[in-house]
C-alpha cells in the first residue's frame, strides 16, 4: 500500500486490488516514528462501494508512509476548544473571530455584557473554518469568584476539554491624575477587575486544566512535549513602564504580568503554559473612551509610537493565537511586548 501525506492529512491512497470505481477515504488516527526515521501510522480506511472487495479492505491498517514527514508544524493548529473571557468587545472579540478563522472546533464567549457575547458568537460563525464549529455565549463577572467558577464549570461541561483560555476582560484608566490627586475608588475598581479578576480566572481554569489529559503538542514530534492547555492574559506595555498620571492602570498591569509569571511557574509541571500579551495602544472601544476623556491623547498616540500608528485588535489576536498554538510549545511565562516600539527606550 502506498500512502501520501500532506500537512498531516492523507491525500491519496492506492492499493492494487481497489478498482477505480471504489472511492477510498483514509483518516490518520495516529502517527509516530519507528526508530529508523520512518513515520508509522494507524490509518482508518473506509472504502465506498459494494461487495466483497469492500468487506475485504475496510478496516484499520498499520501503514508506513512513503515519504518521511518533517517534524515542522506548518499551521497554527488551534483546532481545539477555546474559552475567551471579555470576548464581547475589543481585543477579546478579535480573539474569538481569530480562533474561528484559524480552525477552532468550539468557543465559549464570556463577558459581563451578555448581549455583546451573543453578537460575537453570531459573528464568529461567519468566520469559522472548522466544519463543526460551535460558539456559545455566557455571562460572567470576573470580579466574582462564584461567577468565574460557574463559567469554567459550564465551559467544561459543554466542551469536555478547554485547550485555550484567553482572559481579555479589563478596565482602562478613567482619569489621568498625578498620584497626589489619584482617585482611590478608581484605583480599587481597576485592581478589582484587572488583577483580582485575572487571578480568579487563572485559579479556576488552572484547577480544571490540571485534570485534563496530557496530549502531544505535535503528534509528529514527541520531542515538543505534552500539553494540558494554554492560558493567555492581556497585560499591557504598562506592565513594563509607567505613564504620567496613570498610576492606577500601571499598578494593575504590573500585577497582571506578575500573576502570569507566577502561574506559569506553578503550572509548568502540568504542561499548562501561561503567557501575557502586552500591547500598547490598540484601536478598541476602551481606547476610544480614553481618547474622549483625555484631551490630546489621540495625537499623543500617533506621535509617540515609533511605527507611527495604533495597533489593530486583530494584530493582538494573532499574537494570542500564536501563544495558544503548539508553535509556541516552549514559551511560558513571557510578557510579550507588542507596542510598535513604544517602550523601546524605557526597558532593556
Ligand atoms: N485597547 C488598548 O489599547 C489596550 C492596550 C493594552 C492592553 N489592553 C488590555 O486589553 C484588555 C482588553 O481591552 P480592550 O481594549 O479590548 O477593552 P474593551 O473595553 O474594548 O473590551 C473589554 C471587554 O471586557 C469586558 N469586561 C469588562 N469588565 C468585565 C468583567 N468584570 N467581567 C467580564 N467581562 C468584563 C467588557 O464588557 C468588554 O467586552 C484589557 O485588559 C486592557 O487593559 C488594552
UniProtKB/TrEMBL annotation:
Entry protein name: Uncharacterized protein
Highest rank taxon of the organism: Eukaryota
Gene3D superfamilies recorded: NAD(P)-binding Rossmann-like Domain (3.40.50.720)
Statement: the UniProt record of this protein carries the keyword Oxidoreductase: yes
Family statement drawn from the similarity comment of this UniProt entry: Belongs to the short-chain dehydrogenases/reductases (SDR) family.
Keyword Oxidoreductase applies: yes
Keywords noted in UniProt: NADP, Oxidoreductase
Amino acid at each position: 500500500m502506498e500512502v501520501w501525506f500532506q500537512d498531516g492529512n492523507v491525500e491519496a491512497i492506492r492499493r492494487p486490488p481497489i478498482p477505480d470505481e471504489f472511492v477510498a477515504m483514509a483518516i490518520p488516527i495516529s502517527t509516530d516514528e519507528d526508530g529508523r526515521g520512518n513515520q508509522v501510522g494507524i490509518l482508518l480506511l473506509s472504502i465506498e462501494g459494494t461487495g466483497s472487495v469492500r468487506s475485504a479492505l475496510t478496516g484499520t491498517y498499520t501503514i508506513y508512509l512513503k515519504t518521511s514527514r518533517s517534524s515542522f508544524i506548518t499551521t497554527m493548529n488551534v483546532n481545539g476548544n477555546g474559552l475567551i473571557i471579555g470576548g464581547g468587545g475589543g481585543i477579546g472579540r478579535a480573539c474569538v473571530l481569530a480562533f474561528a478563522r484559524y480552525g477552532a472546533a468550539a468557543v465559549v464567549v464570556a463577558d459581563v455584557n451578555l448581549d455583546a457575547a451573543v453578537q460575537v458568537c453570531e459573528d464568529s460563525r461567519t468566520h469559522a473554518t472548522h466544519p463543526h464549529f460551535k460558539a456559545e455565549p455566557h455571562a460572567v463577572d470576573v470580579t466574582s469568584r462564584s461567577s468565574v467558577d460557574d463559567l469554567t464549570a459550564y465551559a467544561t461541561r459543554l466542551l469536555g476539554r478547554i485547550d485555550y483560555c484567553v482572559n481579555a476582560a479589563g478596565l482602562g484608566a478613567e482619569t489621568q491624575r498625578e498620584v497626589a490627586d489619584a482617585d482611590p475608588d478608581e484605583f480599587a475598581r481597576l485592581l478589582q477587575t484587572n488583577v483580582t479578576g485575572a487571578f480568579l480566572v487563572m485559579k479556576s481554569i488552572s484547577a480544571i486544566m490540571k485534570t485534563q489529559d496530557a496530549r502531544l503538542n505535535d503528534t509528529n514530534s514527541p520531542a515538543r512535549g505534552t500539553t494540558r492547555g494554554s492560558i493567555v492574559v492581556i497585560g499591557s506595555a504598562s506592565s513594563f513602564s509607567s505613564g504620567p498620571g496613570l498610576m492606577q492602570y500601571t499598578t494593575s498591569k504590573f500585577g497582571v504580568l506578575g500573576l502570569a509569571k507566577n502561574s506559569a511557574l506553578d503550572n509548568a509541571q502540568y504542561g499548562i503554559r501561561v503567557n501575557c500579551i502586552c500591547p500598547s495602544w490598540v484601536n478598541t472601544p476602551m481606547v476610544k473612551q480614553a481618547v474622549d476623556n483625555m484631551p490630546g491623547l489621540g495625537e499623543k498616540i500617533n506621535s509617540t509610537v515609533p511605527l507611527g500608528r495604533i495597533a489593530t485588535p486583530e494584530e493582538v489576536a494573532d499574537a494570542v493565537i500564536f501563544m495558544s498554538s503548539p508553535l509556541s510549545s516552549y514559551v511560558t511565562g513571557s510578557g510579550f511586548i507588542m507596542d510598535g516600539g513604544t517602550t523601546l527606550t524605557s526597558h532593556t
